[in-house]
Design goal:
By secondary structure, this protein is α+β, with helices and mostly antiparallel strands. About 40% of the residues lie in helices and about 25% in strands. It has three domains: about 70 residues, no CATH class; about 190 residues, Neurotransmitter-gated ion-channel ligand-binding domain (Acetylcholine Binding Protein, Chain: A, Distorted Sandwich), CATH 2.70.170.10; about 120 residues, Methane Monooxygenase Hydroxylase, Chain G, domain 1, CATH 1.20.58.390.
């Protein structure tokens, strides 16, 4: 094929490809059959060139990625392999239990839910143990700098016992130094269950704990608190509570159902509820309603309508208030301190209503002097009784 013919064919192919409408085949002196006969070989040639260019680009990119993954010759030759027997057998098997050091840093405590008896906590945990078999001397090479999966080596098989749900921020990997010290780090944001004793609500102090246990026997693993890496990072963001820094504790969980015991590590918080919110939203308003009922003793019994109207209005106000504060009270089967106060106040106000009915009845039958005397005695008795309800509810 000569040069002139090749140029002509390229020109025809280009013109037809980019602007078929502007330069149809009949305008360049070619019938349809001749046009397509000449056009097809050059399209195939053009596609072949394009495919070759794409292939070269892919090969170049793959070489670059491979070079980036390999890195330096030292990293390429890094041996992070752990022999299979070291993944299942405990270091020092048959001897003393493996000491597992635990550091617990509380980052934040965001919520305590009385209804579900749970709390939300954000913490960082560090767990370390020594496996001499993973040391550079015993293994023949150092594992320092390797990212090893937690389950790719022997580990104490620890679990969070009272976890409801949790989010882990990091992968479950460990690091190993040349001496064979294995370190596991994790940050956890989770919801944990707690057995809340609400009998002193709202003047209660609760014990909140994050409990970790090993599925191995106490003769194989023993937990040791790492006091240098344990504590409270900052003031917690939770409102309505005063939470201390917490303290670690180790022990053994006994499960009689399966006749087994498990070593455990527990980090305990002590949280004291602030009573101010409940004082101003429940206790003080309820006290005003109670003294609203007290005013019936100051109305002359001959005025039947005002006296009974005031007493019944106080009762209806109490009922409406009780319905409004229902969501603020924990739903438990026993009476809390605040429940005792509400029940005592309610009984006192119904007693005032009964007294008003009695004095009005006496006055209507002509015993005005007796009804007045009863009202006079009821005034201090009502106040003293209410004081006794307050003292019994919150201080005894």
């Amino acid at each position: 094929m000569n040069t002139n013919e090749s140029s002509e064919k390229r020109s025809i192919a280009g013109d037809c490809r980019h602007s078929r409408k502007r330069y149809p085949a009949r305008q360049i002196g070619l019938d349809a059959a001749e046009y397509f006969r000449r056009r097809k070989p050059f399209e195939v040639f053009q596609k072949a060139v394009c495919n070759l260019i794409v292939l070269l680009l892919l090969v170049t990119t793959a070489d670059g990625v491979r070079a980036a993954q390999i890195g330096s010759p030292k990293e390429a030759q890094k041996d992070c392999a752990v022999p299979i027997p070291l993944r299942t057998k405990r270091p020092g098997a048959g001897g003393e239990p493996t000491k597992v050091h635990v550091g617990f840093v509380a980052i934040d405590l965001t919520d305590i839910d009385d209804a579900t008896q749970t709390f939300n906590v954000d913490f960082h945990i560090l767990i370390r143990w020594v496996d001499p078999r993973l040391s550079a001397e015993m293994l023949g090479h150092s594992l320092e700098g390797c990212r090893i999966g937690l389950h790719d080596i022997w580990n104490p098989e620890f679990r969070m016992v009272n976890k409801r749900e949790a989010i882990k921020h990091f992968e479950d990997t460990v690091s190993v130094d040349p001496a064979g010290t294995v370190t596991y780090r994790q940050r956890v944001l989770g919801r944990f269950s707690a057995r809340l004793n609400l009998r002193d609500f709202p003047r209660d102090t609760q014990e909140l704990s994050v409990q970790i246990a090993s599925t191995l026997d106490p003769g194989e693993v023993v937990f040791v608190p790492d006091t240098k890496l344990t504590g409270k990072l900052q003031d917690f963001s939770i409102s309505g509570w005063e939470v201390g820094p917490g303290e670690p504790e180790t022990g053994i969980i006994d499960v009689p159902l399966i006749e087994r015991k498990f070593p455990s590590y527990t980090y305990r918080f002590h949280a004291t509820r602030h009573v101010g919110y409940y004082l101003w939203t429940i206790i003080f308003p309820l006290g005003l309603i109670v003294f609203m009922g007290w005013t019936v003793f100051w109305i002359d019994p001959v005025h039947l309508g005002p006296q009974l109207g005031t007493a019944t209005a106080a009762i209806f106000t109490l009922i409406a208030f009780r319905l409004a504060i229902g969501r603020l009270l924990p739903a438990v089967e026993y009476l809390t301190r605040l429940d005792k106060f509400i029940v005592g106040s309610s009984v006192l106000m119904f007693a005032a209503l009964g007294e008003a009915i009695l004095t009005c009845s006496l006055a209507a039958r002509g015993n005005h002097l007796l009804s007045t005397r009863i009202d006079r005695w009821a005034r201090p008795i009502y106040v003293l009784t209410f004081t006794a309800v307050v003292v019994y509810s919150f201080f005894i």
